[in-house]
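README: folding subset

This subset contains proteins for which both the sequence and a predicted structure token string are available. Records are stored as plain text. Below is the entry for Signal recognition particle receptor FtsY (391 residues), shown exactly as it appears on disk.
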Amino acid sequence: MTDLLWLWILLAVLLVGGLTTALVAGVRRRGAPDRDALPGDEPGDADGGLPGGGAASTDVLERPVDQAPPAARLDVPEPVAGRLVRLRGRLARSGSPLGARLLGVLSRDHLTEDDWDELEETLLVADIGAGPAGELIDALRTRVRVEGVREPGAVRQMLREELLGLIDPSLDRRLAATRVTRGDGVEVPAVMLVVGVNGTGKTTTVGKLARVLVAEDRSVLLGAADTFRAAAADQLQTWGSRVGVETVRSDKEGADPASVAFDAVRRGREGAVDVVLVDTAGRLQNKAGLMDELGKIRRVITKEAPLAEVLLVLDATTGQNGMNQARVFGEVAGVTGIVLTKLDGTARGGIVVAVQRELGVPVKLVGLGEGADDLAPFDPEGFVDGLLGDA
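--- output ---
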């Protein structure tokens, strides 16, 4: 009897133990947190508790801990051909007062001396310069007298031909943007030194030029050699980062510009990039100081690679006032090409002729607006047609 009692007690204990185990398991299944669960896997939260309501993904578990996050999306610069068409259209729509005035006078029945004086004054106001203005008036006088041109279409064509002749479409306006081989057989990047007075949009132009080159599938490296303005290096780095272009700079304000330029060119050679663009300080406190600084930069750069271009950035709206700047930089820097910024309005478009005559080098690029892709190679025919508009 005693044995039977103990047997019943044992069966009761086993039964209570089994019920307790089942009860605990049921509670865990209904929502009790598991000590081994991952953070964010709280029960009752169908999306895993991720911000924004996104479902928990195994990608988080499978991605290596040291894997970098996805890179920021880069800008895709507008193709150069497309922007040329757009900029030409903008010129044509601007209703150029220069072209309208010239055509208006030349279309009169009988041109008097006062009319010719008016034409010359219009050209001078447009910053074409006294010499080129006189040449154009003489050529127009001769053609009007010999050809007797009066019909509007013929007048426009005559003026177009003479203006185009002054701008000289035969000049080589191509950028030297191809890698070259040094005398020792080492291939090096095409190095472009960009100079100009602060306030002309020089640093912005360097950034836009980088976009032009990237649009042409060239690899680019930027050198922030304007070390006297920390904002200039920051600005240049921002422009470059948008299109995946690296910027070589110094963290020390007032560092040696020549040293930064040298580092940029060397980095470009080691990285086998196509073009190195070097931005320089635009201080014009005196000619001697400017000559010393730019001279040192040139000497240091050429230890690594020859200079392919020295581009002078000029603000087109400064007109003849900008010619003094052009003369100084032309003498000091050995300018090979001109970049005219802020050529939005064409009333003073004669500056193209004046600056080419003054420096003996072509306008290679023009900026026609504030957009990131509003810099384009200069097209003489498109520019003249824009000056004349639909008149």
